[in-house]
């Protein structure tokens, strides 16, 4: 549908006013809110994620696109809620204990929302027990840990240990952040690792597909 394609392009370009207008036009034309999310907004954020992975765009452009999507979601969320439609997968995310950096974590959170995950953001300086409680409470398919300091990498390791020890069978753990590598992720027993926000969406989708 041309309007859905226009919406995808508007989100990818971070055009907030166009994104809202096209969402309103699609609703007025009788398009369901779920279709608008899945076939209009989510593909737009997927384009942004791919461009970011290829270094064609940078953090500011991603933030602008995510804000455009957020404005459209404000219109759609009440309609989705009243129709009882929820995202299929839930993710919990936070920056590990002792670490106050949240710009990267917020980007991942926005990109996961853009991929139609329900995201519970625990903020920064999150102790292992808080991740565990949130994963249990929200029956999370995915728990995301971010760390920006070499000094907080042990907190990431401890969080993975606590989550694994709890035996959450359908919850996968994904880690990332500037000092984190695939080798470290493997070493601490995480289920997945991503180096950037675009890859974090691909890895999240792979992990939940296995967990579900
Ligand atoms: Co801090 N800081 N900082 N800092 N800071 C770094 C990380 C540092 C490398 C700077 C430096 O020395 N060159 C250094 C760490 C050195 C090290 O550990 N080896 C450092 C330090 C030392 C500190 C303090 C200790 C400084 C001090 O007080 N002496 C202190 C620590 C406070 C604390 O956390 N307890 C501190 C404080 C701060 C500010 C508060 C001033 C501020 C944070 C503001 C905020 O986040 N709200 C800050 C900032 C801004 C930085 C730099 C400049 C930028 C970090 C950033 O936001 N990058 C950083 C130096 C740098 O990176 N150039 C630095 C942009 C962001 C989009 O990237 O977070 O890497 P990033 O996220 C990426 C990927 O890593 C990945 O995807 C994201 C998007 O591509 N990713 C994931 C991240 N999380 C992921 C999770 C995933 C998957 C992928 O799955 C779940």
Give a summary of the structure in a few sentences.
By secondary structure, the protein is α/β, with parallel strands linked by helices.
Number of helices: 9
Could you state the order of secondary-structure elements as H and E?
HHHHEHEHEHEHEH
Q: Specify the helix fraction band.
A: 55-70%
Give me the CATH superfamily of the largest domain.
Answer: Cobalamin-binding domain
Largest sheet: 5 strands, parallel
How would you characterize this protein structure?
The chain folds into two domains: 2-82, Methyltransferase, Methionine Synthase (B12-binding Domains), Chain A, domain 1 (Orthogonal Bundle), CATH 1.10.1240.10; 89-211, Rossmann fold (3-Layer(aba) Sandwich). Strands 2-1-3-4-5 form a five-stranded parallel β-sheet, with helices on both faces. The longest helix is centred in the N-terminal third of the chain and has 24 residues, at 59-82. With 212 residues, it is an alpha/beta fold. It starts with a helix and ends with a helix. It is 59% helix and 11% strand. CO-5-methoxybenzimidazolylcobamide is lined by residues 59, 98-105, 107-108, 144-146, 148-151, 174-179, 194, 196-197, 200.
